[in-house]
From TrEMBL:
Catalyzes the reversible oxidation of 3-phospho-D-glycerate to 3-phosphonooxypyruvate, the first step of the phosphorylated L-serine biosynthesis pathway. Also catalyzes the reversible oxidation of 2-hydroxyglutarate to 2-oxoglutarate. Keywords: NAD, Oxidoreductase. It catalyses: (R)-2-hydroxyglutarate + NAD(+) = 2-oxoglutarate + NADH + H(+); (2R)-3-phosphoglycerate + NAD(+) = 3-phosphooxypyruvate + NADH + H(+). It comes from Paractinoplanes brasiliensis. This is D-3-phosphoglycerate dehydrogenase.
Length: 404
């Protein structure tokens, strides 16, 4: 972008300092806020902001994007992007980036730790010890070796958990609606019901798309084996917590570990309200699956690099919502990025406008994804404002950016 020095960045939810350093090194003006913002607060803050960085609590709705008069890109400094209206972002030519791999190890290690803790009943023993009760007994305590782990959602986290669990001696089953290759000796279940009926531990690793709301409720808990354990480190909306409490109180589910909740406090120190509070066989953590220093540092650098590459080069590699395009830069050339509706003839129309004004194309790359296309064009020599006006006036144009 030609006015990079004026780029304003708003980072919410205590994004790691490595992201701030990277963006400031690029010459951007960065404001970092500790907590999430609700819709009305974000609408008030978003005008004049070019880059927005969020984590999982801030919702970027269509109304927020409508109020964003300068927004170029959004960085989700986490795995999930269901908190962003991706359809509205695409319609406004706003690129969205996330960190699909950076914190998977942290989530997997927490899951393993919680499985061991519940299987050995460590939380109950710990509570008794703090109350002064010495309860040295092996009753109800087991090894995880030889037990079956059922993974619902076999993506980046599920597959890594599968491998580590097998290395610890567990048998692994998984269920996924997509056709996924089983790693090592993992068994693919033909249905969710098969997984629930055969697993000693069930762990959820699904996304938070609206269709997954209430995905796991009373019927699914009833299907689980008597005395099985349950974990959710994915999204809070996918589990019916009232049904989970009932399953725990009845003893049908022996224990649970929950890291995500349908409604979460906006910031540290705020009161946490949940149906699951007060149950002795439940581990509750404040959405910290990916919250290790290593993961947050990696996420900060990764997403910040994606944002700067898009601003400076138009690079959309690994964009969540726009077609992936990366064209090597060449010195002494101007670059135009063109987000457009994916219809036949757009490239020919763009080149016709450029040829009409005797503009020489030095490099060009086009990619499409569903409804939208993204074109990068490198131009040798100068061009008039009339060229840009005509490109913007094209019926298919969503957004045109002059990068250099």
């Amino acid at each position: 972008m030609s006015d990079q020095a004026k780029m304003r960045v708003l980072l919410l939810e205590s994004i790691h300092p490595d992201a701030v350093s990277r963006l400031e090194a690029a010459g951007y003006e960065v404001e970092s806020v500790r907590n999430a913002l609700d819709e009305s607060e974000l609408i008030a803050r978003i005008p004049g902001v070019h880059l927005l960085g969020i984590r999982s609590k801030t919702k970027v709705t269509a109304k927020v994007l409508e109020a964003a008069d300068s927004l170029v890109a959004i960085g989700a400094f986490c795995i999930g992007t269901d908190q962003i209206d991706l359809t509205a972002a695409s319609a406004n030519g706003v690129a969205v980036f996330n960190a699909p791999f950076s914190n998977t190890r942290s989530v997997v290690e927490l899951a393993i730790a919680e499985i061991i803790s519940m299987t050995r009943r460590l939380t109950e023993k710990n509570t008794l010890m703090h109350a002064g009760v010495w309860d040295k007994s092996a009753d109800g305590a087991h090894e995880i070796r030889g037990r079956r782990l059922g993974i619902v959602g076999y993506g980046n986290i599920g597959t890594q958990l599968s491998v580590l669990a097998e290395n610890l001696g567990m048998y692994v089953s998984f269920y996924d609606t997509a056709d996924k290759l089983a790693l090592s000796n993992a068994h693919r279940c033909a249905s969710l019901e098969e997984l629930l009926e055969t697993s000693d531990v069930v762990t959820l690793h699904v996304d938070g798309r609206p269709g997954n709301a209430g995905f796991f409720g009373a019927e699914q808990f009833k299907r689980m084996r008597e005395g099985a354990l349950f974990l959710n480190l994915s999204r809070g909306i996918v589990v019916d917590h009232v049904a989970l409490r009932q399953a725990l109180e009845s003893g049908h589910v022996a224990g649970a570990a929950v890291d995500v909740f349908p409604t979460e406090p906006k910031g540290r120190g705020d009161e946490f309200v949940s149906e699951l509070r007060g149950l002795p066989n439940v581990i509750l953590t404040p959405h910290i699956g990916g919250s290790t220093e290593e993961a947050q540092s990696d996420i900060g650098g990764f997403v910040a690099n994606k944002l700067t590459a898009f601003v400076e080069e138009g690079n959309t590699t690994l964009s969540v919502n726009l077609p992936g395009v990366a064209l090597p830069e060449q010195a002494g050339q101007s670059r135009i990025g063109h987000v457009h509706i994916n219809t036949p003839g757009v490239l020919a129309q763009v080149n016709s406008i450029l040829a009409e004004h005797h503009v020489n194309v030095e490099g060009q790359l086009l990619s499409t994804r569903g409804e939208y296309g993204y074109l990068i064009t490198d131009i040798g020599g100068g061009f008039s404002s009339e060229v840009l006006d005509q490109l913007r006036a094209m019926e298919q144009t969503v957004r045109l950016r002059v990068l250099s």
